[in-house]
Prior knowledge:
There is one protein chain. By secondary structure, the chain is mainly alpha-helical. The protein is built from 11 helices and 3 strands, in the order ααααααααααβββα. It folds into 2 domains: 173 residues, Ribonuclease III domain (Ribonuclease iii, N-terminal Endonuclease Domain, Chain A, Orthogonal Bundle), CATH 1.10.1520.10; 67 residues, Double Stranded RNA Binding Domain (2-Layer Sandwich), CATH 3.30.160.20. It has a 3-stranded antiparallel sheet with strand order 1-2-3, covered by helices on one side. A hairpin with a 6-residue loop joins strand 1 and strand 2. The C terminus is likely disordered.
Amino acid sequence: MGVLQFLRRFLRRESAPGKETCSLPRIDLRRLEQALGYTVRNPQLFREALVHRSYLQVPEIENVVSNERLEFLGDAILNHIITELIFEEYPRDGEGDLTKLRSRLVNRKALAAYAQVLNLWDFLLLSNGAARSSDKGVESILADGYEAMVAAICLDGGYKAARSFVMSHVRATIDQGLVRIHDENFKSQLLEHAQAQGMAAPRYSVLSEEGPDHDRTYTVEVRVAGNQYGIGVGKNKKDAEQAAAREALRHIGVPRQAGKGE
Length: 262
């Protein structure tokens, strides 16, 4: 018996009497397929992948299974895919560097970024309370949903389909600056430069906040000695400040320093 065949049998819904997903509302399958870039064979599997555990508390919803089991499986599959990817892409890096890189690509923030690229939040089924979660709560919900979706694709279409799915989001988020794979702290570098020049510490100010709570975008400026040196955009204030500091360093002409921890 192959691994996928075993996993399908292990997670088969018939093995859990009374745990049907028939009470779930219908999903816009075509829209979901467009977002995923994947043709779904088993819609029920994907409906389950979209059910956050908070949705089980909705009074009128009965006999529903959350995505926690798929999340568990997806976590293992995702780690394997990312490990394989960085092993191939970084042939000269040692175990320690590869471990650090993997942690940056599979942590909660990174998984939430992959989910945002998909607009996964628009498809998730969750309670009203969960929908109003804090930023960290939203990140956790998105990360769990993404892992469940990876598992659903792997069970539905095989490992190659799941690998292609994950790799496309890893590359997209890195290209957009949503996930950083280098250990750089531009704020620290800008502060060191300002102090070396005898200037006061850089000051950061939020210029604007846009978008819904689950997909907020911040625009931040940084001023050094009263002058604006950079403007940055990010999904949270910390990332926006880092982007502003990076732009300020470019404006000033400070050489890039690799290996600075945050």
